[in-house]
Design goal:
The protein is α+β, with helices and mostly antiparallel strands. Helix content is 41%, strand content 16%. Helix 1 runs antiparallel to helix 2 (47-60), helix 2 runs antiparallel to helix 3 (65-75) and helix 2 crosses helix 4 (82-93).
Length: 215
């Protein structure tokens, strides 16, 4: 059987017609044999013809392992015949679910989604990505201590940009007091200043009371 003449007849028929519907682009001279992507070397075929052409190329050039690999990849485990291969390829190109277009609430870009994610009641989706969701849930405000702007969540009552600023703000409200026992200067808050704290530690307090009782 003249496989080359059959191959050339399929290619010539594909050059003379326009296929409506699903079609596949085929290299007349395969790329593994030096073929290029020029329009002269390309032809539109049906999936059945495309599968048959690759089978014919293997029979014409049996010493080319890449041609055999192409047929194996096209056939797989399910596509045993060219009709079954064409059915699977056309089935794969059909849209699986109806898609809707929605705009991101943060950046405004278009999002393609199914009806489940498009519905505002069952499962609303308002952001295109996790970054947009994070940025939309944040708010920028100044730190109460240093005045620098920082980012925080809207539902968080956060007034300081870092734990260091929080600590410095507490230390700024404290007052320096001299211990009655060891004469060491220590910091106290407004609460301890109102109750008249006079000792830097419990040890100093006990030592001072013991010394006072002995006198």
């Amino acid at each position: 059987m003249n496989y080359k003449r059959i191959y050339e007849s399929i290619v010539a028929r594909g050059k003379e017609r326009v296929i409506e519907g699903y079609k596949e682009r085929h290299h007349i001279i395969p790329r593994c044999m030096g073929g290029t992507d020029d329009p002269i070397n390309l032809v539109d075929l049906t999936p059945e013809e495309h599968f048959v052409c690759h089978q014919l190329l293997v029979k014409i050039y049996p010493e080319r392992p890449r041609l055999i690999h192409a047929v194996v990849m096209m056939a797989g485990l399910k596509h045993r015949r060219n009709k079954l291969y064409g059915w699977h390829r056309r089935r794969a190109m059909l849209p699986r679910k109806e898609q809707f277009i929605k705009h991101c609430d943060h950046c405004g870009c278009e999002m393609k989604m199914t009806k489940r994610y498009f519905d505002e009641v069952t499962y609303p989706r308002r952001w295109c990505s996790r970054n947009c969701r994070t940025e939309a849930g944040n708010v920028t405000k100044p730190c109460q201590h240093c005045g620098e702007l920082f980012t925080s969540k809207k539902n968080m009552d956060r007034s300081f940009c870092s734990p260091r600023c929080y600590t410095d703000s507490i230390l700024a409200l404290r007052t320096s007091v001299c211990c009655l026992h060891c004469s060491k200067t220590f910091q106290i808050s407004d609460y301890y200043r109102k109750i008249n704290k006079k000792f830097c530690s419990n040890i100093c307090n006990k030592s001072y009371r013991k010394r006072s009782s002995s006198l």
